[in-house]
Amino acid sequence: MFWKSFKLFKLFGFEVKMDLSWLVIGALVAWSLADGLFPFYFKNLSSTTYWIMGVVGAVGLFVSIVFHELCHSLVARRFGMPMKGITLFIFGGVSEMVDEPPSAKAEFSMAIVGPASSLVLGGLFYAFNYLGRSAGWIVPVTAVLAYLGLVNVLLAGFNLLPAFPLDGGRVLRAGLWRWKKNLLSSTRIASSIGSVFGVVLIVVGVVYVLLGQFVNGVWWFMIGIFLRSAAQSSYQQVLLRQGLQGLTVRRFMQPDVVTVAPSTSVDRLVDDYIYKYHFKMYPVVQGDRLLGCVTTKQLQDVPRNEWSARSVQQLSTSCSPDNTISPEASAMEALAKMSRTRNSRLMVVQDSKLLGIVAIKDMLDYLSIKTEVEGRS
Fold first, then answer.
1. Cβ(86)–Cβ(63) under 8 Å?
2. Taking the CB of residue 288, how many other CB atoms lie within 10 A of it?
3. β-strand pairing of 281-286 with 353-359
4. Which DSSP helix (H) or strand (E) runs through 370?
5. For residues 112 and 101, what is the distance between their CA atoms, to the nearest angstrom?
6. CA-CA 20 to 30 A from 103: which of 111, 145, 156, 271?
7. What is the pLDDT of residue 57?
8. Separation CA 177–CA 102 (nearest Å)
9. Would strands 353-359 and 83-89 be described as parallel, antiparallel, or unpaired?
10. Neighbouring residues of 209: CB distance < 8 A, sequence distance ≥ 6
11. Which residues, at least 6 apart from 37, have a Cβ–Cβ distance to it below 8 Å?
12. CA-based nearest residue to 317, from 333, 331, 296, 303
């Protein structure tokens, strides 16, 4: 669901990033405000004024979403939950939690503060709008304030829907968790409700399209798809975390590693390693020293007629936090890193020495067998 994101700034120690998809929605918001909403309600202003209002409104929406997610992150920090940061993407924003909340109270507090903060912010915008109109401020200013007041109230209302992983769904999960004393069962129920809400929004989108409102229909359809997918993946994340809880990379590490010497030619790499072992990544080792790794993807940059003349050393990349991990790191950390970097295997390294390889397949096979043996409970 996420495109490439880039860092904007740091706020209270949290890294705020913007997914490239938010540039699309930001432009669409500015255009719809400048060409639709503001001209409809506020007549006889210049085109330039409408566009300034539209851009300011889009920036205000950006600030509102950051404020909403920042409040989530601050409360999470208070309960000792590590947060990677905040990412803005096409459907709004998300606070990146490293782990699940430690208790139902922490879950409820972190979830409810989001809609509450949006309501407070919406109230402030409405208050400034009222004061501005009373003081005779120009229409463009009061109009934008009214819009930002409304959009924050709508943001709070939508997030209060009891559809996990929306804030309302997390409040629901917190209540179920407190009652049932079981995080997995509570997440399963809340996620199921979130999936149902997603289906409802998909149906609403289809109805809009059939009624001729194509843009509205596509928008609600996409939100429904996202909500359903997010609900299902959130439950799977809890399953993964509980299944891998307390386990380290060393538990899944394969010590017998197929390594490649730096002097190996590319054609020998293909014939003697890739076509034989079917791995997509191979550590490059000289003696007992790990030099880096070579992947099948890197072969795409080498013409076929140059394979015999090029060596692995010329092709390999150095070790980095993206392709290595400590043997004492948690298995969940390894899985998250593989998901983020799209590497199916990581080199397990300690003191610059290669100890083994950890593969996503081994961890998923373990989880599959554990689920079969122990059951969903």
1. no
2. 8
3. unpaired
4. helix 360-374
5. 14
6. 156
7. 94
8. 11
9. unpaired
10. 217, 218, 221
11. 147
12. 296
Report residue 147 as tokens: 């819009």
CA angle 160, 166, 168 (to 5 degrees): 35
Q: How far apart are CA 136 and CA 168, in angstroms?
A: 39
What phi and psi values does residue 100 have, to the nearest 5 degrees? -75, 155
Strands 289-295 and 324-325: unpaired
- C-alpha dihedral sign at 358, 361, 364, 365: negative
Model confidence at 92, pLDDT cuts 50, 70, 90, reads low
What type of residue sits at position 155?
A: L
Q: Looking at 67-76, 93-102, 283-292, 326-335, which range is the least confident one? A: 93-102
The beta-strand segments (E) located in 90-153 are 92-97
Structure tokens that stand for 155 in this block: 């943001």
Q: In whole angstroms, what is the distance from residue 149 CA to residue 159 CA?
A: 16
DSSP-derived 3-state class of residue 19 = strand
Burial class from Cβ neighbours inside 10 Å (0-12, 13-18, 19+) for residue 39 reads: middle
Tell me the CA end-to-end span of the chain in Å, nearest whole number.
Answer: 30
Contact predicate 157/114, CB 8 Å: no
Q: What is the pLDDT of residues 251-296, one digit of tens each?
A: 999 998 899 999 999 999 999 999 999 888 889 998 878 888 888 8
Residue 138 and residue 51 in contact, taking contact as beta carbons nearer than 8 Å: no
Residues 6+ apart with CB under 8 A from 180: 186
Minimum mean pLDDT range among 81-90, 200-209, 353-362:
81-90
Amino acid at 140: P
Given this model, what pLDDT does residue 112 score? 94
